[in-house]
Write a structure and sequence with these properties.
single chain; alpha/beta; two-stranded antiparallel sheet; 17 helices
Length: 305
């Protein structure tokens, strides 16, 4: 199903329920204020998506205000670090010179090869077949967007931070992110890639509408709906949720405990990392922080930082 690739776009959405106490009732917003627990200044948490139709992408007044007053902006990766980004290509390759031909039957390999050689990738198949299959799956999700122009929310946030001369940092390295994909058997990844290609060829309108439904949920800023859709979808996401999601959330909160005191930060990570029992919002609350929803609409009332 296409939902795995879409999950990668939204940074592997939470597989847990969003149920919390009444004080933490779900709100349709991607922007959250972090305060309390000894913090001298508030910080702000924002849920991104790695690819969105350009006409749907915007930065609200409240997010702009938070960025303007921030000491630093933290993304999942320091995408402003060209040295690290240039080195990512080598880290995308599978270990031990493995290729898709080693992972799929001759018939399935031929199908995948023909699919990409028909113009469904910006990269030549000779290169792509050496990459970790989850990288290719993510690329497929991006290419299936129903609009001509797309943009990453991280890109808009980086531009806003650069305009205000705010330093951009990363919560983890590209090397670490790519190592996550080494923790999942390449064959499992290859079969998921094949499943996504088969879904793309399917005449089943339900499968073809999954991406649209997930994008709609993101645009509605409905974290509960996003988490519910992903939680009932794909076996691979369920099986490897700790590797892909929960462990990273825990690592980030441990890091935020150290870097938030004395500073005001904007932390922008995939929207799927926010909700759920093991999501960043709940983990921060367990650490003693107050995490409150902030209106994030185009015409939202401006908050006081």
């Amino acid at each position: 199903m296409k939902i795995l690739g879409t999950g990668l776009l939204i940074s592997l959405l939470s597989l847990n329920s969003f149920a919390q106490n009444n004080d933490a009732a779900p709100s349709n917003t991607l922007l959250w204020k972090i305060s309390g627990n000894g913090l001298e200044k508030p910080s702000y948490l924002f849920g991104t998506i790695h690819m969105l139709c350009k006409d749907d992408a915007f930065i609200s007044k409240n997010l702009k205000n938070a960025i303007s007053n921030a000491d630093k902006v933290y993304l999942e990766l320091d995408m402003d670090n060209m040295f690290e980004m240039l080195g990512v290509m080598g880290k995308m390759k599978m270990n031990n010179d493995t290729t898709l031909a080693d992972l799929l039957s001759p018939e399935d390999y031929k199908k995948v090869k023909e699919y990409f050689e028909q113009g469904n990738s910006l990269l030549p198949f000779s290169m792509l077949e050496t990459y970790k299959p989850m990288v290719a799956t993510s690329m497929l999700a991006q290419s299936s967007m129903s609009c001509d122009q797309t943009v990453a929310m991280e890109q808009l946030i980086m531009e806003e931070a650069s305009d205000k001369k705010i330093e951009i940092k990363g919560l983890e390295t590209m090397a670490y992110q790519m190592s996550i994909f080494d923790s999942i058997p390449y064959k499992v990844q290859a079969l998921e890639l094949l499943k996504m290609i088969n879904a793309g060829d399917s005449t089943n309108e339900g499968e073809k509408n999954e991406l649209d439904e997930l994008m709609k949920a993101y645009k509605e800023q409905n974290l509960e709906k996003l988490a519910t859709m992903l939680g009932s979808s794909d076996d691979m996401l369920l099986q490897y949720r700790d590797i892909l999601l929960n462990n990273r959330n825990k690592n980030w909160v441990e890091k935020l405990n150290k870097i938030m005191p004395g500073k005001s930060l904007v932390i922008a990570v995939g929207a799927g990392h926010l909700p759920g029992e093991k999501g960043v919002i709940n983990l921060l609350r367990k650490e003693g922080y107050k995490v409150e929803p902030v209106e994030n609409k185009k015409k939202a009332k401006l908050i006081e930082i």
